[in-house]
Design goal:
- With 678 residues, the protein is mainly alpha-helical.
- Helices cover 61% and strands 4% of the residues.
- The protein is built from 29 helices and 6 strands.
- Strands 2-1-3-6-5-4 form a 6-stranded mixed beta sheet.
- A hairpin with a 4-residue loop joins strand 5 and strand 6.
């Protein structure tokens, strides 16, 4: 059953590829975007529709995918029966090029990569092999691993089981606001896989993994379209694929890689409009505008932090249209055409948030991670802090000089009272070789980013003083590096520093790496500077290989070491015995109406798995936040489980008194007074 969405996506790609190639246009990457967007749109619509009808369950979801496959098969039959199609045309239309035919998607390379032999070409085969090996390793690790990261246990997976219990994605009473306020699109998709796999989390890691593999392809593809050549295009893809934070994120149920995929989709779609002399006034333009709107909406629904990149590329597109004197009315119509489908995607969540929080988003999910004041000094200092945090590494431990520089900047820019708490408490990692999915340093990417900014500024100054044409300022897609590096810079300046900032940066890597590759491919294109470029690639590769070895060892030591899947849920939280004591009692007594209370450390999902039983119902009780309005006043739990370390000897819920039965360091169980006395 779990393969139904995968099969549906594959058939959909075949249909889109056939129709698109039949029109004389061959862009398999556009067909990938169209396939992914359409499939996710179908998931989104079915989840919202079934929620309104309160039928969000296995049978409707299974029926929806059977219907989807039936429509696809009918579409394929229609194409096969269409008159005038020869066998060879059908094979090509369905994505199977004839042997010996040129690859239709391959762009022309620069002169230096067309040579049959060069030093640069020696890197190509190893780079291909490395990228393929890392992607295969990610799939293997994701399939073998268990989703056990803290965010997954606290709100990514609990919200899925709550939705299925409620048969709706409507807001519900919960102690952890993140369960209803955080981006939801990844959980919409994973809900389908969870249901179709028999209420199992075995395949939920794969959403990030497949997003990771697709992103590697698009990083390479965009770099090729920019004219970076084979070597620098593969280098950009390899840097992304081997960045420790990216690889670690690809193996769990977080959303950063998934969100980055939508950002790179949007960047790719803008290139088609940038590459035109004018915005074409035809049906394909309207179609692409609607698609861009859907991608924007899904990007926000995946993770709102990627909106800085969306805005940067949208602004670049508008500026290019104005400079080439496109019709203003058409530009406005295109903007409206993007905003309408994007608005329709985010409208249901906005409506729910307005009812619950009185705003479009909860405070902690909208402005919690931004710098407190939008002023140049806050922006500059926060930018330097976020960059500097990633620069130290095992080969270049420069934490002490960077600390002195940051203290000097803080003294110049702020008074002792005016420094925001987040920046005042800044500190570097003690262990520079940490390879987990939350705080692994993005050393290679950040050094390349700093180098690219330096080279771009140096090239600009040199060309201005020497009155020469700057190779970085080519019309059309050649200006890609400006919005990509600008968006990443704005992100680093506005998103306040905290220990998990490196994970947030991963969403922007696929967008910025082709821009970095473009700058270096142009600056190091000359005969005298070419070997400097090779040295940059070699040095970066050595650092990536070293980090890759540590990353592989880390993953081998942290994947499926427990005897059971339940033990693996607690790999990063030593609470297995405490939860086991409580849940064994619950199963022994046959309780099915369970109350749940938590504070900052919810870790709720294992409780659901360990108390699994037909008819079981879990509700958050004694909720005091904005979601308390959704609490069921008639729900009388047979016991109350809490992870709060601060608790009382007695609690009450909906007029019933409960007393403490079991108490451990990390969990407490309350039962009714009459049950405790027996």
């Amino acid at each position: 059953m779990v393969l139904l969405p995968v099969l549906a996506g594959f058939l959909l790609y075949i249909i889109f590829s056939a129709l698109y190639k039949r029109q004389g246009q061959k862009d398999s990457y556009f067909c990938i975007i169209l396939t992914v967007t359409t499939t996710v749109l179908y998931v989104f619509v079915t989840v919202e529709l079934f929620s309104v009808l309160h039928i969000l369950a296995f049978a409707p979801i299974l029926g929806a995918w059977i219907l989807f496959l039936g429509v696809e098969l009918a579409g394929i039959c229609y194409i096969l029966k269409k008159p005038g199609w020869k066998r060879e045309e059908l094979l090509e239309a369905f994505g199977f090029p004839k042997v010996g035919s040129p690859h239709s998607d391959r762009d022309t390379d620069t002169e230096q990569t067309k040579k049959r032999f060069s030093i640069g070409n020696l890197f190509l085969v190893p780079l291909y092999l490395i990228i393929a090996a890392v992607c295969l390793a990610a799939v293997a690790f994701a399939l073998h691993g268990v989703p056990n990261n803290y965010d997954g246990m606290s709100y990514h997976l609990p919200r899925i089981v709550h939705w299925l219990q409620n048969r709706s994605v409507a807001h519900y009473a919960c102690h952890d606001i993140s369960q209803i306020s955080d981006p939801y699109l990844a959980e919409f998709v994973n809900l389908h896989f969870y249901v179709l796999s028999g209420n199992s989390d075995r395949f939920l890691n794969l959403l990030q993994t497949f997003s990771y593999v697709l992103t590697v392809l698009f990083v390479h593809r965009i770099a090729v379209k920019l004219g970076c050549g084979k070597l620098w295009s593969l280098f950009a893809a390899m840097v992304y694929a081997m960045s420790p934070i990216v690889f670690g994120e690809a193996l769990n149920v977080q959303t950063d890689i998934f969100a980055g995929l939508w950002l790179i989709f949007f960047a790719y779609l803008t290139l088609w409009f940038i590459d035109k002399e004018r915005i074409p006034q035809n049906g394909e333009t309207a179609f692409r505008i609607i698609l861009m709107g859907l991608v924007c909406g899904f990007a926000y629904a995946a993770k709102a932090s990627v909106l800085f990149g969306i805005v940067a590329f949208a602004g670049w597109l508008v500026i290019c249209c104005l400079l080439r004197k496109d019709d203003i009315k058409q530009i406005i119509l295109c903007g409206v055409g993007v905003m309408i489908p994007a608005g329709l995607i985010v409208l249901p969540e906005f409506a729910k948030n307005m009812i619950t929080f009185g705003s479009f988003a909860a405070d902690e999910s909208s402005t919690h991670f931004l710098i407190p004041v939008f002023s140049p000094r806050y922006f500059i200092y926060n930018f330097v802090v976020n960059v500097a945090y990633n620069l130290p590494n095992s080969f270049l431990d420069i934490r002490r000089p960077l600390t002195r520089i940051l203290k000097a900047m803080r003294y110049i820019l702020f008074s002792s009272v005016d420094v925001p708490p987040g920046l005042r408490n800044f500190s570097f990692l003690k262990n520079l070789n940490i390879m987990n999915h939350d705080t692994a340093l993005n050393t290679v990417v950040m050094w390349l980013f700093v180098l690219a900014l330096f080279l771009a500024a140096l090239s600009l100054i040199y060309c201005v003083t020497q009155k020469r044409k700057n190779p970085l300022f080519e019309k059309g897609v050649g200006m890609y590096w400006i919005p990509s590096l600008t968006a990443f810079s704005i992100f680093l300046g506005i998103v306040g520093w905290y220990r998990y900032i490196t994970r947030y940066e991963a969403s922007y890597f696929p967008m910025v790496l082709p821009g970095i590759a473009y700058i270096m491919s142009r600056v190091f294109a000359g005969k005298k500077t070419r070997f400097i470029g090779y040295a940059v690639i070699a040095a970066s590769a050595c650092m990536l290989f070293y980090q890759g070895a540590l990353m592989y060892r880390y993953q081998m030591n942290h994947i499926r070491q427990g005897k059971t899947r339940i033990e693996e849920y607690f790999r990063y939280r030593d609470m297995h015995e405490d939860y086991g004591l409580m849940t064994d009692y619950i199963r022994e007594k046959g309780f099915t109406q369970l109350g749940f209370m938590c504070g900052d450390s919810s870790y709720e999902y294992p409780f659901w798995v360990m108390t699994e039983k037909p008819g079981r119902r879990v509700e958050h009780v004694n909720v005091t936040n904005e979601t308390a309005r959704y609490a069921d006043p008639d729900f009388i739990p047979e016991c109350i489980f809490t992870t709060d370390t601060e608790h009382f000897r007695e609690v009450s819920c909906n007029g019933k008194e409960y007393v403490l039965l079991y108490e451990t360091e990390d969990a407490v169980l309350y039962v009714p007074e009459e049950s405790a006395s027996r």
